[in-house]
Amino acid sequence: MTWREIVVVGGGLIGSLVAFTLRRAGLDVLVLDSGRPGAAWRAAAGLLTPDGERLHGTPLYADAVDGLRRWPALAAALEDSGGVAVAFREGVRRQQSDGRCEVTAGEASLHPPSVVAAARSGLEVIHAHVSGLHAVPGGVWVQAGEQGWHGRHVVLAGGVWSAALGVPVRPVQGQALLLRGPVDLGAVYGPPRRGFSRYALARPDGVYVGATARASAAVVPDARAGRWLRGVARELVPGVTATPAGTVLLGLRPVTPTGRPLVQPHPTVPGVTVATGHGRHGALLAPNTAARVLALVQAGIRA
Ligand SMILES: Cc1cc2nc3c(=O)[nH]c(=O)nc-3n(C[C@H](O)[C@H](O)[C@H](O)COP(=O)(O)OP(=O)(O)OC[C@H]3O[C@@H](n4cnc5c(N)ncnc54)[C@H](O)[C@@H]3O)c2cc1C
User: Residue of 110, 128, 165, 180 with fewest CB within 10 Å of its CB?
Assistant: First the structure.
């Protein structure tokens, strides 16, 4: 059995960008992904908006601003390496309750499925469902049913499914709507209503309207959420009544008990670094998380 230097469990927004960053640092990296329905990255809007998400004054703000600062260079590196455009775009508008709009300084958006595709394109990715992580002399045995891999170091980035591998995360389901039709909209936040963020943005695959949040692991669309989203679309997207019904997107955001991501050694399995629990901010925080995981892995290699 050959040993891999790094095995990353989960190739979503966090796992694929961690793997891309470790690979660029010259490490040998294998990614295992089980293609779970309900993976958050497939449903994510792609807003990079610390202020739009009202993070100012929260413990997440510094990492969010750092993530935003790192995104332009990371987006360029992703595009250079794989030839996949990630649709990184600066400029987000905020609509006031009187209808006036202001552009927020420095905020941006991108297309999460393209980010994952671009990151994965230069990596070795194997379809496998990891069922166990076991410390062994010299590293970790990563078990996937009858198969398995030895990793000198393992990064656990399985989103909400990291819970089955010993990490305290729970799902917060989000539903969104993808409308067809080229609308020159950019990205716009509506005025929050009853605490919910309402936003719409033009992406390469259509106009994205989002998003709901409820404590649930269900991966089937909810009709009531659909009605709410169509109401948001009518308010924020000009000419939407002429647009066909659209596609429903559904994803499970991984949320920790404290609301802060876990980027740290695994609580019980030595040799495993956990990178999950990014809730509604995984795209925004991913470059910061990737840099932190690289530092932890390099420190582990030096020790
Ligand atoms: C509706 C919605 C809108 C969002 N909008 C934004 C936004 O605008 N901006 C923002 O910053 N964030 C946004 N998010 C949040 C963002 O999507 C998440 O924080 C992020 O995707 C979490 O990344 P992750 O890699 O931890 O998990 P995921 O993206 O869920 O990926 C986990 C991956 O691990 C794999 N996996 C799981 N278990 C195993 C296993 N046992 N073995 C192998 N592979 C496994 C899965 O197949 C999956 O590919 C949104 C989320 C939702 C649902």
Answer: 180
Q: Given the DSSP bridges, would you call strands 29-33 and 3-9 parallel, antiparallel or unpaired?
A: parallel
The CB of 203 under 6 Å from ligand 1? The reply is no
Question: What is the Cα–Cα distance from 13 to 167, expressed in whole angstroms?
Answer: 18
Whole-number CA gyration radius for the chain: 19
Q: Which pLDDT score is estimated for 101?
A: 83
Which of ligand 1's atoms lies nearest the C-alpha of 285?
Answer: 11
Ligand 1 binding pocket includes 287 (Cβ within 6 Å): no
Indicate the CATH number for domain 3-302. 3.50.50.60
Stretches where the chain sits below pLDDT 70 are: 1, 181-182, 241-244
- Is there an atom of ligand 1 within 6 Å of 125 CB? no
